[in-house]
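[job 4417] fold queue: 2 targets
>>> target A
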Amino acid sequence: MLHLRSLEELSPEKTWLTIGVFDGVHRGHQEIINHLRAGAKEAKASALVISFSPHPAVVLGKRKDLKYLTLPDEKAELIEGLGVDILMTHPFNQRIAALSAEEFMAEIQARVKLEKFLIGYDFALGKDRQGDAEYLTALGQKAGYKVQTFGPVVTGDEAVSSSRIRAALAEGRVRDAIKYLGRPYALSGSVIHGDGRGRKINIPTANIETSPQKAVPLNGVYACWAYLHGEKHRAVTNIGIRPTFTPDKEQANIETHLLDFKDEIYGESLKLEFISRLRDEKKFASVDELLVQIRADIAKA
């Protein structure tokens, strides 16, 4: 996959296109991108995904506290896995925000031979989100390309969306996140030094430092898969303030215990996939009581 960062890098070739933020690359996104890839291949065209970054809601001041389901590198890896030819991570700034849908599409058509534009039912492009599906379909007819609109992907009775996934994570519903994403929710980070309490009680934990922009599940204890050097390990992860030891702490820690693994891995990169929530974080009366619960968590995981 070719990863570009400006329209000027595009080649003037026959192109199928989709545009969006694609935060999470969830099942709805996958539906569109899979059709894009397959259709472009059949039409002997390039499959181009344009992904805006940062999130428009952040740039426009609507969601300054927004946490991302996928950081840029994570998103690129997932989109590459779907088999597209070109991903463009397009900077979203005030200039782009001020363009009409017609102006932005004209900039694209100045660079490629646009044949088809695939969009989601709730997609809107351009200043004040004027370019909804109906508008873009009419614009395509005028400008010489076809527009195909996809309905929502539904699980249960709910349409899959990035907002719905963030809400599920905020409530600790990682099993629901799996249903929406089509895979476990994941976060990665570097293993940093903690206070060493886990090793003192013979249950060593890896403290993980991740991006402050990354969405983190609700405080609690989770069964996870941990990936280190490409190898998969069963793990129990605690997200929270560790109230038994630091009752006045406000900033949450992410610490994980890899089952049947004792090596020191400070400075290494660790990826966690959240499979199920085991329990809430709670304060214990003693370290011994905490140990009993930790062993129960490990057995359950």
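>>> target B
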Amino acid sequence: MSAAIGLRRAGWTPVIVERAPERRTWGYYIFMFQEGLQAAADLGIADHLHTRNPEWRPGGNSWTVDRRGRRKPALGLLDAPSGLASVLRSDIEAALWQGIAGDGAEDAVEVRFATTPVEITEGAGGVQVLLEDAGAGKRYREDFDLVVGADGMRSSVRRMVFGPDEDHLVNWKAMICAFQLKEQVPSYEASDSILVARPKRAVWVFGLADHAPCAWLTYRTEDVPDRFAGSAIEQLRAVFAGMDDNPVVRHVLDSLEEAPDHVFDSIHQVKMPRWSTARVVLVGDAAWCMNTYSAMGSSSSLRGGAALGVALQEHPDDLAAALDAYETGLRPYITRQQRSARVKQQRFVPSSRPVEVLGSVVLELIRKVVHRRMTAEYTASSAPAAPSGTGR
């Protein structure tokens, strides 16, 4: 949807083709970095984006739990001075939906639900797309000036135009399950965040200001295809056996059994030498999926949609120049973020016991410095104002 907003702002008339039969309003936890918040502002949706950062309190809102079940203050992901925001996927969807709705029915972007591209044929003057409407049970062809593939890590547009997934997906040999908890882990504050990490396995609980927490279960594995055999909960109970005596892990696993929705998937990055052909361009995870560990997926997708719109606006009569400008301007940023994801992965799920221990020591040193500063700022902001005038 960010690309549709960008195109419309550049004077185009976009049509969104959506595989799902209705809006995807369910949401899991997402980080929004400053780049994503700026892109939201550039797209005109910042005022519609609901953020859910808990109010920081002395002592912090984040905890780690050691092997003896003892909780210790931790450096929270929101403690970084980088303008990070906590949102749900549904918050971003709602803001983008407001953006494509425009000022009324005449200004709204057309959305075709339960519709997928089946065949894409590029020509000198445009692109012909064979579309399948699952609701009506029919196929039809339609001509467009440009096709934007923004259909995720396993993009069907990318497969049809750029080749099979195995040419572009880099397997990180890891899995993740993300979902919303019905309620917080017992004995923790409603907005607390919690980490229980062991070598190659980790459970995260992300506290929110005005919503029940969300959870991640993530682990490293050499057998990614085998992990899709059987149900997610069966796989996860087997993987986290030996950790489930921890109340946090047990609560998360039990909650997953009752969760109405969840995401359970393998971790990959998408690497491509180029994101466009003459009249087909990829945006977001379809082009450069950074993966969950980067924590930059949503921010980069919003930035990509905004950047594509700007490039088309600056080159209104030269599509090739616009697509070149889009990629030239964005690729260095994407490359940096993809590289940094390897380092971030160790934060989310340490690869070994030495890495776990070293990470804990380093993060504890940083936490003491950061929390000392944040406590001072909190105290200063909470102090009563000095009386005006002079006392006699």
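[job 4417] complete. Note on B: DSSP finds ten helices and 16 strands in the chain.
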